[in-house]
Amino acid sequence: MQSSSRSEGAMTAKLDNDSFVAFDHAAAGHEGVQCTVSGSFIAKPCTPQEVAFYESSALHPAFQEFLPTFIGTLTSADEQQSLALAAAQQAGAIVLPDSEYSSMSDAPTAPPPSQTTAAAAAATTKTETTGSTSAAPAESPWVPSGGKKLETGLSIVLENVAAGFKRPNVLDVKLGVRLWADDAPPLKRAKLDAVSKETTSSTLGFRIAGMKVWTGVSGETDAGGRTDPYATKYEGSEGAKGQVIEKDGYKRYDKWYGRSLTESNIKDGFRTFLAGAKAGAVDRSQLVARRLAEELKHVQEVLESEESRMYSSSVLIVYEGDPDAMEQALEEEQRPRPERAEEEDEDEDEEVEFAIPSDGSFQVVDIPLGQGSVSHQAININLGPEVAELGELDLDEDEEDPPKVHDLRLIDFAHASWTPDQGPDENVLKGIRSLTQILDELALE
Q1: What phi-psi label fits residue 16: left (phi over 0), alpha (psi between -120 and 50 degrees) or beta?
Q2: What CATH number does the domain containing 319 carry?
Q3: Whole domain around residue 292: which residue ranges?
Q4: What would the pLDDT profile of 288-300 be if each residue is shown by its tens digit?
């Protein structure tokens, strides 16, 4: 079972199509993204490689601390054949034919070893951007997705990082000077190299990919629980390139806004983002900047101790945009917390222990991906139905998420892998260090 200390106990016994609904506002942007009725979890189309990376993060607990909590996967029964079935099996998904979406515990079961090689080969016949099958990705023309639905038949279920905020201000910062992975076709490499060269990606190792800032003007329909933070890069996409859209109480800045910024004025972009913390009786912008800088320093320490490569990954930053909710969250932080021993005593009667059998249902396996010898390690635990029922999660719960001042996570791992003996990911670290420096300076303004 995988979980994050930021959001403990996230476990589900059943996730199906009826558990998810479409986002009810245009800013959700990327097609195919859904959320639970409560808004606590999000299901977004993904690649098997992204699922494998989330699974393998269980072996890297310090790194996992900065990921959204991974709940599991959903597979479409309508596409349970050919490539979709192979991709789902490669990701370890359990396909149930009786419902449109399969049930999935938060710890997928590995497919039989005999299937992994064939599944991996089949999975490589579909690229992230084209949404169509082909004999060899390198020979197929590459076309940007433009926010269209990723057709893999597989969706990853993650916690909604925006849950817990009344009016979340959200920023997506794309990391890296180099933005393409080793398996990217030449056309994609050329396009992404041009984007990097023309933006702050080449000089600072990051660029602003999109953001939304609460203003309270032009409506108040965009509540925190119904915000998709993973689609922030598609904010404002209904307007002209670079146009700031004011809608549902938010100002929305698209990726073209971020691309227009240079090394000399990049701070203005972050000042715009932090302006939402100036709206209350007390200016909290410096406090938010300082907290984010401290979080990024922890991220830097973790990445410097890991050996990975994450191309086109992002830092997702969220802070409370409602002034009253911000002050409430700050007050909540000051309230005394029960001692851990006391908490354990209170929960003692509710705890259920079970032994992990020695018959191979708990194992560390290598999941091969793509053509060649690339593989990812993942922990696979086969939970029986009687155990899964103990961890059943009510997706329509009325309990509200505790208020939060801010949150910061690493996201977007479609092109991420662990790379033993290759050293830390300096490509991503350059962006983390630059971003930290800017926020440190803004915390002193």
Answers
A1: beta
A2: 3.30.470.160
A3: 161-335+403-443
A4: 999 999 999 999 9
